[in-house]
Design a protein that fits this description.
Layout (H helix, E strand, L loop, with lengths): L2 E6 L2 E6 L10 H16 L5 E6 L3 E3 L4 H7 L22 E5 L2 E3 L1 H8 L2 E5 L3 E3 L2 H4 L7 H4 L4 H8 L3 E3 H7 L4 E3 L4 H14 L2 H13 L6 H10 L6 H12 L20 H59 L1
Helix pairs in contact: 2-11
Length: 320
């Protein structure tokens, strides 16, 4: 099986077991992860999960072989729901990083609440090598200084020792101490009052840095800014172990026609301004109608009173 699970009391150990592919995120492995974390989430007895891998890698990220066979870059959707990857898992997860954590593997570590790594493990945010925009957001999530975040976004590799110094990794251990250390951290969590554990994990997740909406919109535009045939070329070159032949842009001048925050912010504002005018007119009309209704009622009352007076005077004249 590409994913194995082990239960130790209230702890579930989820092991990525595809060492011949460095635990790359192929369809079967992602399916196995989804099933394991769904079981963990739904269990009334399990409270803490540990995520680790077998072989020399924790997780190598995207399965390049599957991407090339499919003819499309990246992982195509999720074979099954995975509460860990989609951010709906309320229970804490500890990463026990046994080796290489690259691309999507780095992102798995990033999603965990606590992290233990073996000495010498290697980490890489690979987006700059595989897409049209590097992983600009990962340094933000890790609260790294801007030059270090830039280094990370541009695809440089980091050792576990350096990430431990930067505060991304909680503990550094020898390989034989990896799981015992992770289990020890899980056992500490289980000594806490249940509400305290759940509430604290929830609170700490709310405090994670987030990319501002305008910068996220700029990033989406930059992901489209270039010749997208380079996406598959980078994967083919990797699989064929050769130097890639990139094109860069569809038009050479596109290099200097960068999308900007100002240009992106003008578009939605213009649309919303046009749409708001008819709404304002409709609101004004409804207010005018509402104001007119009570006035009409007020005028109707005195008419009824004045109509009654002449009738009374006519009867009086007949009696006379």
């Amino acid at each position: 099986m590409s994913v194995e699970t082990e239960i130790r009391g209230q702890i579930m150990i989820v092991t990525l077991n595809r060492p011949e592919r460095m635990n790359a995120l192929g369809v079967e492995l992602r399916k196995g992860m989804g099933e394991a974390f769904t079981e963990f989430r739904q269990s009334k007895s399990l409270e803490v999960a540990i995520l680790t891998g077998t072989g020399r890698a924790f997780c190598a990220g995207e399965d390049m072989k599957e991407s090339l066979e499919r003819g499309k870059p990246g992982s195509e959707g999720h074979p099954v729901a995975d509460p860990f990857r989609d951010g709906t898992l309320e229970k804490p997860v500890i990463a026990a990083v046994n080796g290489f954590a690259m691309g999507g593997g780095f992102m798995l570590v990033e999603r965990t609440d606590l992290r233990v790594a073996v000495k010498g493990a290697v980490f890489e945010v690979s987006e700059a090598k595989r897409w049209l925009l590097g992983g600009y957001n990962h340094g933000l999530y890790a609260n790294l200084a801007h030059p270090v975040a830039t280094e990370m976004a541009l695809g440089y590799r980091f050792t576990a020792e350096r990430l431990h110094q930067l505060g991304f990794i909680n503990r550094l251990v020898d390989p034989d101490k990896l799981l015992p250390e992770a289990v020890g951290m899980a056992e500490h969590l289980l000594t806490l009052p249940p509400a305290s554990r759940v509430n604290t994990v929830y609170m700490m997740r709310q405090m994670r840095p987030k990319v501002a909406p305008d910068l996220a919109a700029l990033a989406a535009a930059l992901h489209e800014h270039g010749d997208k045939t380079d996406l598959m070329e980078s994967r083919k070159a990797f699989a064929e172990k050769r130097k890639p032949s990139f094109k860069g842009w569809l038009k050479p001048d596109d290099r200097y026609r960068m999308p900007t925050l100002a240009s992106l912010s003008k578009r939605p504002k213009a649309k919303s301004a046009v749409k708001s005018k008819p709404k304002a007119k409709a609101a004004a009309k409804s207010k005018a109608k509402a104001a007119a209704k009570p006035k009409a009622k007020a005028k109707a009352k005195p008419k009824a009173k004045t109509a009654a007076r002449p009738k009374a005077s006519a009867k009086a004249k007949r009696k006379r």
